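agent> Task received from the user: take the single chain below, predict its 3D structure, and emit structure tokens. No templates, no multimer pairing.
agent> Plan: (1) validate residues, (2) run structure prediction, (3) serialize to tokens, (4) report one or two observations.
agent> Step 1 OK, no nonstandard residues flagged.
tool_call: predict_structure(input=
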Amino acid sequence: MSGVPSTGTRPDVTGPAVRRAVRYAKFTIGYNVVEGVVAVSAGAVAGAISLIGFGIDSGIEVAAATVVLVRLLAEIKGGEPDEAKERKALKFIALTFFALAAYVTVEGVRDLVADEKPDTSPVGIALTGLSIVVMPWLARVKRRAGLEMRSRLVVADAAETRLCAWLSVSTFAGLLAFAAFGWTWIDPVAGFVIAAFAVMEGREAWEGELVCDDGCDDDCADEDAGADGAAESSATPSGGRPSCQGGCE
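)
tool_result: status=success, residues=249
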């Protein structure tokens, strides 16, 4: 992707961009906490599967954004993030995405078969409409900060936020179509779209895309560059960082 920081570059954590990135991460967490609570509550009242799924996804995004924020703060302080713990956290997040996909799929099929009729949710329409405005803006400013500080981590997080924006669009369209035309099948179908998004995000989290970025790539580049000139390049120097072969794959 054009403009994405290349491998072999370390992020600049000394300039103003990193402070903006931290603020954006905190805003993501705060906004999604409120969004998730309101969406699940409104979805439960209206019996809208898509809105409940949207709210659960917001909660999962809070967990993912927290992983990103912890890593950013560790880089600012000059410490080494615990890759093993971050990978475990991301795998747990991935499992919750898969569970979300299973939930909305099963409930959607059940409602289609039983011809369940949800209630119109003005709160849900307003909430997802607001997210259509907020999420694209947030994704844009995150990406700008990530490119400025040369952080693949922040750029990847911006891509996650952009995906949430599309999820807001699909949920908003489903809720609005049901309110306007009374299509009972639109809510389960919107739920299936959420399930597809959840599987995509779950796969990315399971593969650890937000964990193995700048540091691992730099180590790999350094090892490749020194392989021809040092016979001991296959061994880990005493007191050095472990080979990225074991930590990244």
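agent> Step 4: summary for the user.
The first helix runs from residue 16 to 46.
agent> Done.
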